[in-house]
Write a structure and sequence with these properties.
With 135 residues, the protein is an all-alpha fold. It is built from four helices and no strands. Helix 2 packs antiparallel against helix 3. The longest helix is centred in the middle third of the chain and has 45 residues. The radius of gyration is 21 Å and the shape is elongated.
């Protein structure tokens, strides 16, 4: 394990590096076997990213629930306003950052689906299957 990975990876950097590598591969001329290996590698990374997206969806859901609970406490128990307002605002700010990260993950996964299809188009035996599905 690399030292910088001890506390997690920079997901945005990880995604940019992978996209750059796949797009570089797509711009070159490769055999069907090389493309299948690249496709397999891309699918593994896509699986990891889709799992990350799913976990963040769960986290966003629970953060929304907690934020709404804090809002209800703040509105329905006015005597707790001084304590509940900062808690509500803290969770609201946290929710904004979680939503921004979730949308990044969602858009990246969808972009990687497109990269997957472009890799498939480079493999002759899969090209006919794609054309039949899209028509």
């Amino acid at each position: 394990m690399m030292r910088q990975d001890k506390y997690g990876i920079n997901v945005k950097k990880w995604c940019r590096e992978h996209e750059k590598q796949v797009e570089g591969f797509l711009s070159g001329d490769h055999t069907a076997e090389e493309t299948k290996r690249e496709l397999s590698y891309h699918l593994r990374k896509l699986h990891f990213l889709a799992h990350e997206r799913f976990i963040h969806l769960i986290v966003v859901f629970f953060t929304i629930v907690i934020t709404l609970c804090a809002l209800m406490v703040m509105l329905f128990l006015p005597e707790t306003f001084l304590a509940s307002a900062p808690i509500f605002l803290g969770f609201l700010i946290l929710l904004a950052f979680y939503l921004a990260h979730y949308f990044f993950l969602e858009n990246t996964v969808q972009h990687w689906y497109r990269l997957y299809e472009e890799l498939l188009r480079k493999i002759p035996e899969y090209c006919d299957v794609i054309m039949n599905v899209n028509s």
